[in-house]
Specification:
With 129 residues, this protein is of the alpha+beta class. It is 23% helix and 28% strand.
Length: 129
């Protein structure tokens, strides 16, 4: 069974989706952006920080840690921002590097947005079987 999740601490959803879905002990987080936050019109780094904070909050609500991140998919409008995001991601992950894809796109849902991140999170550690 698929459980649909909307998180109160994230910006309100205006489209036909939920913040995340849970299925088979895995959480699939929809693409998160700075849309609807105080960082929406700010620079790439500010937008990235607010998204990583949103992911942290989701992990906290789900009682998970950064080590439970399985995969991130990152969409950026400007691939030259790669050095900045690498630094921020190394700091965010610590020693728990997930798999990750980075894709340059021509646009996102709003013209002010520069980055979108979706995540997959393990809801059960591999040692608890």
């Amino acid at each position: 069974m698929v459980k649909r999740v909307t998180y109160e601490h994230l910006p309100q959803i205006a489209g036909p989706y939920v913040h995340a879905t849970k299925h088979n002990r895995t959480l699939y987080v929809s693409g998160l952006t700075a849309y609807g936050t105080h960082c929406q019109a700010q620079d790439f780094e500010a937008q990235t920080n607010i998204i990583l904070k949103q992911i942290s909050e989701i992990l906290k609500v789900e009682k998970r840690n950064v080590s439970d991140l399985v995969k991130l998919t990152i969409f950026v409008k400007d691939i030259t921002k790669l050095p900045a995001i690498r630094t921020m991601l190394f700091e965010f992950y610590g020693k728990y590097l997930p798999s990750c894809s980075l894709v340059e796109v021509s646009n996102l849902i709003h013209s002010e947005l520069e980055i979108e991140i979706e995540a997959i999170v393990a809801l059960e550690s591999s040692t608890s079987r």
